[in-house]
Design goal:
- By secondary structure, this protein is of the alpha/beta class.
- Helix content is 30%, strand content 21%.
- The chain has 15 helices and 19 strands.
- The strands form five sheets. Strands 3-2-1-4-19-18 form a six-stranded mixed β-sheet, sandwiched between helices. The protein has a six-stranded parallel β-sheet with strand order 6-14-7-8-10-9. A three-stranded antiparallel β-sheet has the order 11-12-13, with no helix packed on it.
- A hairpin with a 4-residue loop joins strand 16 and strand 17.
- Helix 1 crosses helix 4, helix 7 packs parallel to helix 9 and helix 9 packs parallel to helix 10.
- The longest helix has 16 residues.
- The chain is globular and about 65 Å long.
- Bound molecules: NADP nicotinamide-adenine-dinucleotide phosphate.
- The site of NADP nicotinamide-adenine-dinucleotide phosphate (NAP) has 23 residues, from helix 7.
Length: 430
Amino acid sequence: MRHVAIVGSGPAGYYTAETLQKADDIAVDVIDRLPVPYGLIRTGVAPDHQSIKAVSRRYEGTALTDNVRFVGHVSVGTDVTIDELVALYDAVILATGAPNDRPLDIPGADLGGVIGSAAFVGWYNGHPDFADLNPPLDAPGVVVIGNGNVALDVARILAKTPGEFAGSDIVAHARDALAGSAVRHIQILGRRGPHQIAMTPKELGELGHLERASPRVDPADLPPEGDDALLEPGMRKSVTHLRSFTANPVAKPVTIDFDFFAMPVALEGDGRVQRVIVERTTLDADLTSHGTGETYALDAGLVISCIGYQTPPIPGVPYEHGRGRFASDEGRILPGLYAVGWARRGPSGTIGTNKPDGARIGEMVLEDIGRGAGKAGRPGLDALLASRDVTPVTFRDWRRIEEAEVAAALDGRPREKFTSIEAMLTALGR
Ligand code: NAP
């Protein structure tokens, strides 16, 4: 028997497990810090994007195969170390994603009301770490920094009416807070221009169909229309959406303004953010931005920085600080230790990008470990955890948590998520 441990039960973890479980004579343990599986699907993908979240059914198919086991509520680093896992398993695969915000390195970034997207997204999606975030929604102005899909998710969630969350699994605390929100002006800052956005067309198009909010683009920021012909088709479609937003009058009560060539350089306020100081930029020949020295101020009681994520380093595991990911040779970190998904590549690509990545790392691991080295594997982990009084949450336990969440749902909602580890364990009678 060969034994593989995957740390992290998000898309990269389960796509890797899907490939591994097809081999014979293998036991795969998918370990997660939370008592609930699926990582970014549960706590990252926007709650109003249920069709994307539905991919968890595929992961469930993998989780229910005989040779895959979910080991929830076990913290690698606290309950068991990486070295111990490497000693117990033929291969340990880090599929820990990139849950930390890339730091916004400007003066005032530590003021109240300045929040990273990991925290804000975790808050509305019920991640236990961010249930108490309580973002201030009492001022009309919000600045969202970044021109990626996360910035779009954040702006859209801030702009939606309670009715527009029908059918979503947004958690109750966020739904209630957003229903009473005073937010009226959302400014999305991009340090480069419309041709350099990292947003995708479907997500941009959604902004054009919001009940009480209109997206707006200043036509002066757009390059000549003929230049769009040089763009790849997806990007061209996105820019077409931006062009359509130039025609929007201020007819709706909430505005979402795209502010291009706009680089935040300081955040000001007395304990809590009140203003964002923005510097105009221009692009160099290599399309990087630099400041022009011209600045202006935007009023904001909440600033959400959506400038990308990074993987938290693990002591003793080689790490690339510039890229915010583990240092690996195509996935091989050290003998017996691998990385997959965002932990390997950095935080880019969609959920589906992890499918070929997981398949490739799964095949690489199978090739590397051969028939296995007779390691202790699963029984060894169980003995170690028992000696430390750690009782893992099984996949069957998770199904009971899920049933309780579904049973608590009202108004046709798919589920009412538990937002604390205590509540999840209480549902199991622990
Ligand atoms: P992203 O796509 O990498 O976008 C980050 C944005 O932040 C870029 O516009 C970048 O501008 C900007 N930025 C970086 N550092 C900055 C700074 N210091 N000051 C100002 N702006 C800065 O990251 P993301 O939005 O977090 O998304 C992560 C991944 O998840 C992406 O692959 C995304 O497509 C995916 N995702 C997909 C969906 C979906 O499919 N529905 C939803 C959410 C996320 P520059 O280009 O100038 O560096």
